[in-house]
Amino acid sequence: MKKILGIPLVLTTALLLTACSTDDTQTDSSSSSETVSSTTTTDSSSLNNLSTSATETSTADSEGSTPAIELGAKENPAPLGQPLNFQFNFTDQNDALQSAMLSINLTNIATGEEAYYQMHDLDPSNPNVPEGQEWLLFEVTIMMNAEDATAQVTLENTFSIENAEGQLIEQTLSPNMAEQALQTSILSNGAMVSGKFALMHPVGDASTIVFTAPDGTTQAYWHL
Questions:
Q1: How many CB atoms lie within 10 A of CB 112?
Q2: Percent of the chain scored above 70 by pLDDT?
Q3: What is the spatial distance between Cα 133 and Cα 205, in angstroms, rounded to a whole number?
Q4: Average of per-residue pLDDT values in the chain
Q5: pLDDT digits 0-9 by tens, 99-125
Q6: Residue 222 forms beta bridges with which residues?
Q7: Torsions phi, psi of 129, nearest 5?
Q8: Positive or negative CA dihedral for 84, 216, 218, 144?
Q9: Is 73 helix (H, G, I), strand (E, B) or coil?
Q10: In sequence order, which residues have a C-beta less than 8 Å from that of residue 186 and are 6 or more positions away?
């Protein structure tokens, strides 16, 4: 009888051990599943934050962007040979405020000895520049279109030149050329004036040619 009763006891003990082992396995599996789920949630949150940051940066860049600077402005001078059109206001003979559009182009640019030889051919009395300076010679074409068909403006002290630091370069010599009448001339609506113009500037300097409109404030810029 003792042997027969011992068998069920052993079986009962084995079953209890198996059940405990199954419960532990389920608990470990559940714990492992919870860890993975938590890790996945954290990673997703991190990606969302990065995405939000990128969107905010993009929005900030868009909101903080500045409009493009117009070609021919002081901060964005045009290359020589690039025609420029710009508007300015002036007062007519009846003291009425008028608006006009100027179209200007600078071509056939020459510097140094080449410029001096051309100027000498125009007038042998044209002086050479001091050491460290050179002539800058170019052809100018200016045309005006105004609202008033009878409009006229005076072109006076139209061209000057600035050095690489933006400082005005003093013109100590005055070339003798008929075309230099562009310095002071009358421009009528629909009319065009053209001719040569010469300016001094330091050799090798990244100078900027400046045109000042008849209103005395509107300016256009070309870089060498």
A1: 14
A2: 67
A3: 9
A4: 74
A5: 999 999 999 999 999 999 999 998 899
A6: 78, 209
A7: -90, 160
A8: negative
A9: strand
A10: 152, 153, 154, 155
Which are the contacts of 198, defined by CB distance < 8 A and separation ≥ 6?
Answer: 115, 119, 135, 136, 137, 175, 177, 180
3-state secondary structure of 195: strand
User: Is the pLDDT score of 145 beyond 80?
Assistant: yes
Task: Compute the distance between CA of residue 110 and CA of residue 71 in angstroms, rounded to an integer.
Answer: 23
Report the DSSP beta bridge partners of residue 210: 160, 221
Which residue is associated with the tokens 């001091």? Answer: 130
Averaged pLDDT, 169-180: 78
Confirm if 191 and 143 have CB atoms less than 8 A apart.
yes
- The phi, psi pair for 218, rounded to 5°, reads -70, 130
Gap between the Cα atoms of 16 and 189, Å rounded: 111
Residue 137 to residue 120: CA distance in whole angstroms: 12
Spatial neighbors of 157 by CB under 8 A, at least 6 apart, are 183, 184, 212
Higher pLDDT, 135 or 49: 135
Q: Which whole-number Å values give the CA distances from 121 to 4, 125, 177, 193, 196, in the listed order?
A: 137, 9, 10, 22, 13
Q: How many whole angstroms from its chain centre is CA 145?
A: 28
